[in-house]
Amino acid sequence: MKESLDGKIYLGLDTSAYTTSLAAVDGDEKLIFDRRLSLPVDEGGLGLRQSEAVFGHLKNLPLLWEENTKDYQGCRVAAVAAATRPRPLPESYMPVFKVSEAFGLFLTQTMGLKFLPSSHQEGHILAGLWSCGLPRGRYLSVHLSGGTTEIVAADEVKPGCLELEMLGQGSDLNAGQFIDRLGRLMGLDFPAGPQLEKLAAAGREGAVNLPVAVKANQISFSGPATRAEQLLQEGVSKEDLARAVEICIADSLVAAIGNLAPTVFFYDAILVVGGVASNRFIRERLAKKFGSGSLFFPAPEFASDNAVGLAVQAARCFKA
To answer: What is the fold of 170-301?
Structure first.
């Protein structure tokens, strides 16, 4: 753990579908700590019910809090930001985020602190901006995970305050669901992303082809997933098929972003966030298309679910 120079720290809380996260930064946005606990999924399972995830977060948060009180003695919590919903939209709701909201409100009301209700998506984007060292600006942000496949315009109008505009999205399966669905059929653990990436490393590019189903700003992975299942049943190499999945996801994004032209040139850069954004091959394939100077990815540990972006958001909004 790093020490806060002025003794003030800013907390972030996130209780997503599969990860309990608690993080803190100081007023200069230096990372003080980043703690996470994954929610257990039964072997052979393809996820958790919301009630199971809520119960898991209720067990995990006190453990994370107890662990960190030993680390930041002498520091004063100045503000807390919590993910209270998936996206910053009135209709956006998932029960799991009520846990981080309740814990954040209890903490701030008890200690007389400032509280910032935020969203899981804003946390991902701010973690990406912070990890890449990008200044305030207007970014084309691609959010790829098990629960989201979206292309949004992200404008940090003032420190920590994002204005998001939906530009494109998945029409059925999300990118992470595509990976997990096929991974289950391959006998991989859930979530399947890291294991599928290892399989794909031994696969041959072009040995298996999956369709790209993009219409205007809508990305479909249900058709490619169905075709992948058929090929698996026909006995194609798992390694080759895993590589084909990575290619399909990357090329689908290229097509969808290409359909936004020429508006894509109105942004400072493209930022790709979310758990699927940690896949090295997908990163490299997108970089070849868009160029490293206009495309940014957070460090892999800050691409997956975390609360660091929310802690950064609290610091930016409240340190003044």
So the answer is: Nucleotidyltransferase; domain 5 (3.30.420)
